[in-house]
Every structure is written in structure tokens, then in C-alpha cells.
Amino acid sequence: MVQAATEKTLISSIIRRSGDELLQEWIQEQQKAVAKAGKRDEAEVRQLCSEFLRLFRDALEANGAYDLDGKEWTPVRELLDTLSRERSEQGYSPSETASFVFSLKRPLFAQLRRELIRNPEALAQETWTATEIIDRLGLYTTEVFQRARDAIIARQQEEMLELSTPVVKLWDGILALPMIGTLDSQRTQVVMETLLQGIIDTGSEVAIIDITGVPTVDTLVAQHLLKTVAAARLMGAECIISGIRPQIAQTIVHLGIDLGQVITKATLADAFREALKRAGVQLRPTLAQAS
Amino acid sequence: MDRIPILRMGEFLLVTIQVDMHDQLALSLQEDLTQRVQKTGARGVLIDISALDIVDSFIGRMLATIAGTARLLDAQTAVVGMQPAVAITLVELGLQLRGVRTALDVEKGMTLLRAALERRA
Question: What is the ipTM of this complex?
């Protein structure tokens, strides 16, 4: 335990004594490792590195047992958190991000060698300790990086779900739902819910489901469409399906799906005209066009 | 035991369900309503379920039964204000309530019933 404590203090005292030298070498090392280093402004990197070294030293001095989950290491972890998250958003690769920590190894080992040139055993011991700590910090960076990426992916998926199911109000009491892209069971559920909620919110009695942008219709999708129409009817609204492409119409007939109960129109325009008729609105050419 | 009030509005009966429906309540509503239709000679029944956010197959079937019974007594039934979640549940249960008229709210339901009566007259 006593020995462990002195080991720690050796690394931290090296940082304390020759911190500037170490910092200089570290930054050079990083610029070698990270091809994108040019993107980052030198002063910024310097500031980040010296901040890291300071926190790293403090943590080493404060903590006898090198438990990286301990509260002494919290500032270091927080710094790495921000760093990895920023870099993952800026499009760095995981290895480029982790190299921030790993590139500290070479300058640190060089300093250790200079320090303990006469004591190979202690040198090996110190090197091992330093490797262990830096490796764990590096792995931690990668982990945070991965988590940040996962969060971005999850958010984008969610956004895509919402983006792809807009409910548009065409007229008082007439809604349209232009569907785009392949329908899977999760999306179809979202589509159904947004449409029904839209009907409630706007008090619309006619809803047009336009499937021009749906590349394929299989039995599942068709069944879902029928369910949506039935649910809307239960709520007191009528659905018109429009934009069924010729191939899809053929598929539907081949599959033996019965859309008999549903009003279908070839284009959104036709469906809109039908909806207006049901809402009691009459379209009339203006005088200028009539003459 | 509590009962669901049935209000008379001209030639229509209005039922607003504002409590959680349990089976016994549904049965007594069905009975009360049939008797009131008979007694008042109402031409239409409006059932407002906008406050109902949970249904099961029993309640779903009850709605269909009420509509069927009322039709025998020459009254049209409209179910109004169904919540999206309820509609989805009923469809998933395979209860599409064919033969029951539906509308978004009481006012639209009333218009719907009037139009239906005029068509018949």
C-alpha cells in the first residue's frame, strides 16, 4: 500500500516537475496520431491537454488506490466525457478520440525512463502502473464515444419516425396524411396514432391517406390500412385512400385483399375533390377562367 | 348501485358515459335505455363516450347490442367522441361496429341523426 502510494506520487511528481516538457511532447504526439488535428486550433488543444494533466495529477495525488470509479477521478472523467461527446458529434473516429489519452503514453514513459534509468525494476513497475491507468482512461473514452453515438442514432431514428408521418390540414374538416417510405409495424402504429389524434385535434370528418410514396404494399400493410380506416370510422371520420399505383393495385387484387368498404381514388387531387364534395364545398371556375 | 343518466332531448335520447364502465353497469344501461326508447318513442340514441379511455370486448359488444335493439324499436344509434386508443382497441378486437353510426362529437352526431331521419321521412 505504502509502495503503491509512492508509485502514484512519482508519476504525479513527474507531471508536476516537467509538466511543460511533457505537455509539449504530448501535443506533438497527438498531432502525429490524429490526421484531423489540423481542424483543431492549437491553443485549444494546448489548453485542453494542460487541463487534463492538471486534473490527472490531482487525482493521482488524492487517490492512493487507483480506483478510477472513485470520486477523486470524477473531474478527469468529466473532462473525458465532454471531450468524447464533442468529438463523436464532430465526426471523429473512435480511435482518433481514444488517441487523445493513448498518445500520452510515449512522452510519459520517456520521462519515466529518464527518471529511473538506474533502477530497471522500478522502471518496469512504474511503466506498468502508468499503462494500466492510461489504458483504462482510454477505454473509458471509447465507451463514452460509443454511448454518444448510440444516443445520436436513437434520436435520429425518432426524428425520422416523426418526420415521415406529417398530418396536413387541407381544408376545414379535411386532413391528409401523405405516407412516404416502406411501412413496418412500428411505423404503421405511429401513422395510425398520429392520424387518429389529428382527427380529434382538428375535428375533421374526412381524412385522405395518400400512399403515392409507398413503394410496396403487402398483406400486412394493407391490413394495417384497413384497420386505420376502421378505427377512423369508429371515431366518426371517413377515410379516402389515394395514390395507389397501377402495380400496387394489381398486387392488391392478386393478394385478394378486399378494399371494397374503403373509398379509393387514383390521385390526391381526386380524393381532395371528393372530400370537398362531402364537406359540402362547391368548386366553381372564376369568371376570368370561364370566359 | 349507480346508474348512468339518460337525458331526453326532443326526439333523441342522450347518454353520456363519464365513469369507468364495468359489466354490471353496462348491462343496466342496456336495459334502461331499451325501456326509455320504448316509453318515449325516441327516434334516435346518442351515446357520448368521449370520456371513456378503456374498453374491453364486453363494452364493445354492448354498444353493438344497444344499436341493434334500438333499431328494432325504430331508433337510430350514433356513438360519438370515441378516443383514438379506444378505436384502435376495438379494431384490434375485431369489433368494427358495422351498423352503428359514428360522429366526432355530440353536435355532429345530432346532425347525422337528423339527416338520417329526414332521409327516411
Answer: 0.82
Phi, psi of A71 (to 5 degrees): -75, -20
Cβ contacts of A203 on chain B, cutoff 8 Å:
104-105
DSSP B1: -
State the first-to-last Cα distance of chain A, in angstroms, to the nearest integer. 101
Nine cell digits for residue A70? 472513485
Whether residue A228 contacts residue A193, with contact meaning beta carbons closer than 8 Å, is answered with: no
Q: Which CATH number fits domain A168-281: 2.60.200.40, 3.30.750.24, 3.90.550.10, 3.40.50.1100?
A: 3.30.750.24
**Domain ranges, residue B29:** 6-114
| Residue A201 CB partners (closer than 8 Å, separation 6+) | none
Residue A193 to residue A262: CA distance in whole angstroms: 19
CATH topology of domain A2-161: Globin-like (1.10.490)
List average pLDDT for each run of 10 residues in chain A, which is 291 residues long.
50 76 79 60 78 80 68 82 83 81 83 82 83 86 88 85 80 90 77 90 92 83 87 92 89 84 90 90 76 54
Choose among A192, A199, A204: nearest Cβ to B88.
A192
Place of cell 511528481: A13
Tell me how far apart the alpha carbons of residues A121 and A102 are, in angstroms, rounded to a whole number. Answer: 23
**pTM confidence score:** 0.62
Residue B96 to residue A230, Cβ atoms within 8 A: yes
